[in-house]
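Note to self: user wants both folds in one dump. Writing first protein now.
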Amino acid sequence: MDYSQYYVRGLGNQIAVIWGLGKFLNSSLELKPQYLYAIGRLLTLLYGLATIYLLYFLSLELFKDYAVSLLASLFLALSWIHVAYSHIGVADISCLFWVYAALYSILLYVDREDDLYLVLASIAGGFAIGTKFSVYIVLPLIFIVIGSRRKLYHSLLILFVLMGSFELINAFSYTPESFFNTRYMMLTDSFAGVEANKLINLPVYTLLLLSSMGLPIFLLSLRGIFSLLKTAKLRNIHFKDILTNKYVLITAPILLHFYMICRLVVNLTRYLLPLIPLLAMFAAYGLVKLFDRRSFPRVFKGIVAAIIVYQLLQIVSLEKGAVIDTRKLMGEWMEENISPNKIISTGPLEDYSIVPSIYKTTTKFDANYIALHSSFYSRYLTGVSGFKDTYPKSCDEIFHCRGGEKTRQFIQNLFQGKTNYVLLKKFELNFITPEMLLLKYLFGPRVDGYGSYTGDMAIFGKQAVVKN
C-alpha cells in the first residue's frame, strides 16, 4: 500500500529541508530521530504562533474592528487544543495556518479584486492540502469562480497554481494518478474504512468542541453567530452575491469540514482544529456586541480578565497532566508493591514506555500483572456513539484495533470484571473546569492532543497472586 495515500509529506519535507541546511552548516551532525522530531516541534510552535498573528489580520479584514481582532487572537491563544497541538511535531497546526492564510487572501481578493491575492490564496490552499488533506479549502475558490466574469481564466489560474504549490511542498513526489488516488482521503484526515455515512458524531463533536474551546469562549461564539445572523440582510440578494459574501467564503469550507468529520465513526479532538480560529473570531465579535466597552469599560475589562483566568486554569490542569506523568506515578507504585523481574503485560502496546526497566514485559495477556494506558484501552470501551462504556461489538467499530477481536473481547471483559484479574490501582488525570470533567465522564480519559503519554493508567493483578 502506498502510505502517501493517507498522509501527504508536506511537513516532513520541511523538516528534511531544515535538517539538510543544518547538515550543510555543520557536516559532523549525526542523523537521529530525536533531532528530526525536535525540528518538527519547533516548526509546529512557529506555525502555532503565526496562526495567532494571522488571525488578528483576518479578523480585522472581516470585522473592521481592532477590539474584535485582538480578542480573536487572544481567544485562539487561550484555546487548550491550539496550545496542545503547538507542542508536538504533527501536521495539524501547519495545515491550520495555510488554511487560514488562504482564507485571508480570499478576503483580500474580494475587497481589492486583484488577481495577485487569488494566486496567493491558491498557493496557500495547495500548501494546506499538501501538508494535511484538506480539500475543503477549495470550496471558497469555487465560489469565486462562479461569481467571476472570467470563469475560464480564473479556473485555470487556480487549478495550475493550486496543483503546483501542492507538488512543491511535496517535493514533486506525486504523479497525477497518485494525486487522484488520494481522492477519498482529502476531505478529512481518517481512513475510508471507518466511514459511518451518517451524522452519528454530531452531538459528540459538539461536546468535544465545547471542551476544546473552553466554556466561556464557546458560549460567546454562539452569541457572536446569533448577532451576525440578526444583522444579515438576505432579502433580494442575488445568488452570486451570497457566494462571494465574506462571511460565506470564510465559514463555508469550515462547515464542510465539520460535516465531513461528523460522518466518521472515529472522533478525535484534533479534527476540530479548523473550527477553533473561526469560532474565536465569532466569540470576540459576540463579546464586543454584548457589552459596550466605551460605556462600561470596567465591566468589559473584568469579563476579559475572567475569561483569561478561566482558560489558563484549563490549560494549566492539562499541562500538569503532561508534566506529572501518570506513567511515572504508576511506575513508582509498581516498584514499591511488585518485586523486580516480574513479567508485566502491556498488551499489543510495546511501543509505549509505561513499565519500569526492572520488569520484563510481554504483549500477551497471560502475565500475573497487566499495566494499561488509556490511549490503548479506551478505544475498546468506546462504541460508534463516541461515548465511553458503550463497548464496540467488533473491530470494525474501533480505530486501530490492535490485537484484533481477541484483544477487544479481553479488554472489555477485563474492565467489566469478567476475568480472573482485579484492578489494583488506577492513576487518573485530574481536571478543574466543568467542560473537561464532562469530557472525561462522557468520553473517557483521552486527551489526544498531548500525545500518547497523557492519560489514565490502570494496573491489574491475577486474583490468585493478589490473595497470596
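First done. Writing the second protein, which came from a different request thread.
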Amino acid sequence: MISFLRSLRDLFHPRILAFVALIPILSALVWLVLGILLFFFFGDRLDQGLAHFAFLQSLRETLMSWGLSLGGILTAVLLMVICLPLIYWTSLLLMSFLALPYIILLLRPTYPLAFSAGTRARGAALRLSILVFVKAVVIYFLLLLLFWQPHLFAIGNGILGAWVNASFLAIEVLGEVCSPAEMKVILQRNRWRNLAMGFLLMGLLTIPIIQWITPVFGGLWFAHQILAQVHRQRSAQ
C-alpha cells in the first residue's frame, strides 16, 4: 500500500508527467504506421477471411439495412481492437527504455541499500524480457482463436496481461540492482504478489484516461515495491 501511494505521489513529478504524455503518443504513432501498412497490404485478405464469420456478416447486414455501408472500415476497427494488447505492450517497452532509467535514478535516494551491492544484471534481464514477450505474443495469437467467444477471450487476455505486467516490470527493475542469482530468488519469492499487482494494473486499463498513465504508473509501482524489498533484505544482512 505504501509503494502504491508513493507511486501516486511520484506520478506528478514534472519529468514523469512528460513521460506519461510522451509514451502513449509514441506507441500510438508506431501502431498507426503499422496498422496502415497491415491494412494496405493485407486488408482485402483479412476482409475476405472475416466474411466467413456469421457474427460479422450479420453485423454488416444490419448496418447496411440502416443505410450504412462501411466497407473496409469495419475491418480496420476490428484490426485495431485485436491490436490493443500489443499497443499496450509497446507502451511498456517504451516505458522501460525511456522512463524506467529515470525512475530508478529518482528512487535511488529513497532506497540506497538496494544499490549498495553495485551489481546489475542487464544482460540476464534483457534475455528474460525478450522471452516474456515472445511467449506473450505466441499465447496471444493462440487466444485469438477464442475471439468469437468474448467472455473466454477477455478472461484469457486478462490473465495473460497480468502475467506480462508482473514478469516484465519486475525483471526490468531487478536487472538494475541485482545479480542474476538474486533476481531468480526474488522473482520466485514474490511471484504471487507481483501477479496480483499485474491484475490491478489490468484493472486500471479498463478505466478511460487512467489507462494512458498505466504503463508509467506500473513502472513506478513495481520500482517502489521491488527496490523497497531489496533495501529491506540488504539492511537485514
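Dump finished. Worth passing along: Residues 3 and 50 are 45 Å apart (CA to CA).
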